[in-house]
Amino acid sequence: MNQINRGGLEGIVAGQTSLCTVGVDGVGLTYLGYTIEDLSEHACFEETAYLLLYKKLPNAIELESFRERLCKQRDIPVPLKIVLEQLPKQSHPMDVLRTGCSVLGCLEPEAGFAEQYQAAERMLACMPSVLVYWYHFHNSGQRIEVETKSDSIAGHFLELLHGHPPSELNQRAMDVSLILYAEHEFNASTFTARIVASTLSDFHSAITAGIGALRGPLHGGANEAAMELIDRFQDPDAAEASLVEMLARKEKIMGFGHRVYKKCDPRSDIIQVWSKRLCEACGDQRLYPVSERIEQVMRREKRMFPNLDFYSASAYRCLGIPTAMFTPLFVLSRISGWAAHIFEQRADNRLIRPSADYIGPEQRNWKPIDQRG
Ligand code: ACO
Description:
Bound molecules: acetyl coenzyme *A
Order of helices and strands: EEEHHHHHHHHHHHHHHHH
Mean pLDDT: 96
Strand order of the largest sheet: 1-2-3
Number of strands: 3
Oligomer: single chain
């Protein structure tokens, strides 16, 4: 049995990328050679997105011009607003983003690959508007203006959601979270986007497919699932007792484990610090201690470590973000990584079309319908 037969393409090199690596041993993370520690300490999300899209850090003029272009493209067309209004209130916001992206592909189709950079910038700029316009229409009964004075996606999103500018702490926390979620090599949603791009399909189709792949709880949906887990417990002791039982039943604990990291997810250490800061700032005395205890139990019982999604959950709760919007926030950031991979795939394209080991029946004779059992 060859390696592919173990399923899930584990350990299979499925292509080349110059965008991101977790290193040969899966112990670090760099975007275009810059460590995630440096980026989350010194960069803003827009610098990070520029780095991914244009493969260089922007200088001051380039960054300002990039920010200006994004700010100018935040509004969404009326037909898209009408579609968002027609979607059910109960829709999952990931479905809303998937639909919004697809509708945008009808209203503003990419005329050719030469327009791919404009398509990526437009998508980065306007997807927060899609999400929050739909949210407010159905939850506060308002057709909100999707413009704010904030020149950052982090500040803009929080202001659209809450109706007032965020504190400096909250804005920076969101900015760091967007940096951490921006890119991650050949993860499931990025690979999906690359597969779609490899058929020479359009930009919106590739991103729409990426959103679909990200939605599941084994991938991006884990931050939402982690929050639901943490919310079950009033205190750390209750969390510990329940976790031990869940593990005995061989249940999966969302927000733990990773396909490519074997010792730790370097992004988790960074978001954990922010989670602690935010919990202290908002005076919450449950979320962080419960999360920490879950982490301790997982390390002790399973030798497993939290991935980026686990402490993102408590951080997002402190930022006042509804749980169902956790994975959509991942989308707002990951558009930058998906776009960069679509560009890379197109620049040296070959159709991605693997083979399968056939395990079905031998060739057999056709039976007319009246002779079948
Ligand atoms: N909780 C408990 N046990 C786990 C967990 C977990 N979170 N993750 C893996 N395991 C166990 C499995 O049960 C399995 O045990 P077994 O060998 O006794 O059957 C073993 O570890 C290997 O697990 P797989 O699922 O085969 O590992 P794989 O590499 O396929 O999966 C994945 C990686 C999907 C991330 C997995 O660890 C998981 O399901 N985690 C929970 C979901 C999650 O947090 N996803 C977010 C990923 S990061 C991101 O998208 C930002």
